[in-house]
Every structure is written in structure tokens, then in C-alpha cells.
Amino acid sequence: MGSYLNRQILRIVWIVLLFIGYQAATAFLSTASSLAGTNPDLAAKYIGLTLIASALLLWLFHWLYQKQLAKNNPRHFGHTPLTSKRLWQFILLFAIMFGIQLVWSQLIVHHILPSPSNQKLVDQGVMQLPLWNTIYDCIAAPYFEETIFRGFFLNFFFSKNTLVSNVLGVFVSGLIFGYLHTLSFNWTLLLYASLGWLLSFSYLYFKDIRYNIALHMLNNILGSI
């Protein structure tokens, strides 16, 4: 029992540290964005820090994820080939994500719900530094978030391939994903949590994190248009 608790605590620490690393890279880019209009030279240095931090983190995330799967992989996650059936299933999941975003945007347009504060920050960064923020939000961020919230989280804490473990894993992963995007309990949390639940389901269904990353990327690209 003691060894199990120690192992779980160590896993929590690892996930927290990886999330902090991801937030640090994001903070470098946010600082570059805020300086872009007043101090371009310093902004360029922070862009450099963002690129270096992101490259190191991408390598670290990939290495740790592959190492974790090699050590314990009861669900047999890995690389599954893209068949016509999986392609249509992927398109269906993306259509559901698009539908969620569309309904939510209409609720915002008609002033039924407020615009997510997280999205306001993203939009502000894109306005200040369009190219680098768009690249980061549409490529780097989906990789980091899917590896943390789906790859590591579900593999570490809900690794048993049972109905109870799968349902709880999807629910908790999506809820944490939603809360960390809002940092409050409100209706906006439900938006991000629903996207997190869909992505968690995708990970367990396809058993290949690349499908998740692609879904997340497409969703962010759609949001940036």
C-alpha cells in the first residue's frame, strides 16, 4: 500500500512539473506578445526562449510518454493504422466537436453565456503577435495538453481496462481539463469539460494519441479562423 501511494504521488508530481513547464513556455510567448508593440527586440528574445523551451518540452514529453508505454501498457496504446472506417469515425468526432463549439458560440452571440476568458486571452495574443501565437496554439499546445491530460493522466491513474475505470477516467480527465482552462466553476467549464470528455473518449477508443492531437489541432485551427 505504501509503495502504491508513493508511486501515485510521484506520478502526480511529474504531471504537475510537466504542466508547469508547458505553462512556462506559454508565459514566454505571452510576454513576447505584450512586448511586440513597444519593444520588438526584447520580444524577439522571448520568442527565442519560447522556441527553445517548446522544443525541449516536445522531446521530453515524447520520450517520457514512450517510456511509460513501454513500462506499463495494459490497454495496448500505440500506433494504429488509419483505415477508412477510422477516418469516418475521426470525422464524426470532429463534427461533434464543431457542433459543441457552434452551439456555444451562438449562446455567446445571443448574450446567454459570456465569452470564455481563456479564449479572450488567446485572441489578444494572436492580435499582438499573430504568427507565433497561431503556430503555438494550433500545433504545440494540442500536443502538450493531449500528452498531459490523456496520455499521462489516463495511463497513470486509470490504467485498468474496465468499464468503471474507463468511465471515471474520461469524466475526471475532462473535468480537470475544463477547470484548468477556466479556473472557476461556471457554465464555461462545461464547454471545455465536454471537449475534454470527447478527447478522452477518442484516446480510449482509437488507442493512439495521434488521433487526439489531430482532433485538438483541428479544433484550435477552427477557433483561430
From TrEMBL:
GO molecular function (one): endopeptidase activity
Biological-process GO terms, alphabetical: CAAX-box protein maturation
Keyword DNA-binding found: no
Keywords, in A-Z order: Membrane, Transmembrane, Transmembrane helix
Pfam families reported for this sequence: Rce1-like
Domain CAAX prenyl protease 2/Lysostaphin resistance protein A-like: 129-222
Stored InterPro entries: CAAX_protease, Rce1/LyrA-like_dom
Transmembrane annotation, as ranges: 12-31, 43-65, 86-109, 129-149, 161-181, 187-206
Family from the record: Belongs to the UPF0177 family.
Name of the featured protein: CAAX prenyl protease 2/Lysostaphin resistance protein A-like domain-containing protein
